[in-house]
């Protein structure tokens, strides 16, 4: 074979080798995973948790001393941990209105926690009742659910505001036909008349009447307006115009004349309706009568 033929053979082999190497290189590129072809989108990142409440409600129980209502939707109770603020649930206004500062109470509540923090964001009351000798032992029985009326103590201390000064006064339990209430010194309760009178002047009094089931509130309103017009113009009080222990009243009418103020109040206690007729002359005894009489009315419970 001459030198010319060897040259062409060598060039042909070189060309075949180049094509073969190129094909192998292309196959390797298709089989090899790409370094960054978007495959990172398949990696699931942990979902970021939003700030706020955990949403886990744990029902807790407690007891302490009622210190008063801070605003329309929260109260303060002093426990072994110190004073704490508790939000009241809807429908608990009547229970709170019947409490006086210094009352021993039992309660159930939930704590809503801040996520990632051990600090309490909010304490929400779910149950609240006044502690009595009958309810203080077990600590778990709600008198309202027991089907029985709790045995009330013969005396009860109430925190009052008299002439701008806060003071504590003790009242004694009195019983009538189907209900009980606390009476302060300087007052007498006549159960046969269902009348609470001020000793210094019997013209200061409250008549208490149990209403029949199915009573008509509007009819009571119209009858009361007719009667009260004899004294003067009739006004209906609402909200903070009413003494705290009676703010759950369904009707509160007042008429004031030159020498006399009369009021007619309708209130339900555990489903039983009551009407209170208040007679209050304009005299020196007026200052103490209102606060003490309304506290007594607010303490009324069915028996």
Unreliable residue runs: 21-56, 133-150
CATH topology of the largest domain: Protein Transport Mog1p, Chain A
Count of runs of 4 or more consecutive helical residues: 5
Q: By helix and strand content, what is the structural category?
A: alpha+beta
Main pleated sheet = 7 strands, antiparallel
Reading the helices and strands in chain order gives HEEEHEEHEEEEEEHEEEEHE
Share in β-strands: 35-45%
CATH architecture of the largest domain: 3-Layer(aba) Sandwich
Arrangement of strands in the largest sheet = 9-10-11-15-14-13-12
Instruction: Supply the CATH class of the largest domain.
Output: Alpha Beta
- Average pLDDT, rounded to a whole number, is 79
**Helical percent range?**
10-25%
Radius of gyration: 39 Å
Q: What global shape is seen?
A: globular
Terminal Cα span: 133 Å
Q: How many domain modules?
A: 2
Q: Total strand count, please?
A: 16
Name a few traits of the molecule.
single chain; 303 residues; alpha+beta; OB fold (Dihydrolipoamide Acetyltransferase, E2P); Protein Transport Mog1p, Chain A; 2 domains; seven-stranded antiparallel sheet; five-stranded antiparallel sheet; 16 strands
Structural summary, described in words:
Strand 10 (195-198) and strand 11 form a beta hairpin. The chain contains five helices and 16 strands. It folds into two domains: 59-146, Beta Barrel (OB fold (Dihydrolipoamide Acetyltransferase, E2P)), CATH 2.40.50; 155-302, Protein Transport Mog1p, Chain A (3-Layer(aba) Sandwich), CATH 3.40.1000. By secondary structure, it is of the alpha+beta class. It has a seven-stranded antiparallel beta sheet, sandwiched between helices. The protein has a five-stranded antiparallel beta sheet with strand order 3-2-1-4-5, with no helix packed on it.
């Amino acid at each position: 074979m001459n030198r010319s033929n060897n040259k062409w053979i060598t060039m042909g082999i070189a060309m075949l080798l180049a094509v073969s190497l190129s094909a192998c290189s292309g196959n390797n590129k298709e089989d090899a995973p790409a370094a960054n072809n978007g495959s990172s989108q398949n990696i699931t990142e942990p979902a970021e948790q939003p700030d706020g409440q955990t949403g886990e409600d744990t029902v807790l129980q407690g007891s302490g001393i009622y210190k008063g209502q801070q605003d329309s939707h929260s109260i303060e109770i002093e426990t072994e941990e110190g004073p704490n603020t508790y939000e009241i649930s809807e429908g608990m206004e009547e229970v709170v209105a019947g409490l006086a500062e210094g009352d021993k109470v039992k309660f159930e509540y939930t704590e809503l926690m801040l996520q990632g923090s051990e600090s309490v964001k909010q304490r929400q009351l779910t149950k609240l009742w006044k502690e009595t000798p009958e309810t203080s032992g077990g600590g778990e029985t709600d008198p309202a659910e027991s089907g029985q009326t709790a045995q009330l103590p013969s005396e009860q201390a109430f925190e009052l505001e008299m002439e701008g000064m806060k003071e504590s006064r003790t009242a004694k339990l009195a019983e009538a036909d189907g209900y009980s209430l606390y009476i302060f010194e300087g007052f007498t309760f006549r159960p046969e008349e269902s009348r609470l009178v001020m000793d210094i002047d019997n013209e200061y009094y409250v008549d208490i009447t149990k209403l029949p089931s199915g009573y008509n509130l509007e009819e009571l309103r119209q009858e009361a307006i007719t009667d009260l017009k004899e004294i003067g113009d009739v006004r209906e009080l609402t909200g903070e115009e009413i003494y705290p222990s009676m703010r759950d009243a369904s009707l509160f009418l007042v008429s004031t004349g030159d020498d006399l103020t009369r009021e007619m109040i309708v209130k339900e206690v555990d489903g039983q309706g009551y009407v209170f007729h208040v007679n209050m002359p304009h005299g020196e005894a007026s200052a103490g009568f209102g606060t003490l009489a309304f506290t007594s009315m607010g303490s009324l419970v069915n028996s």
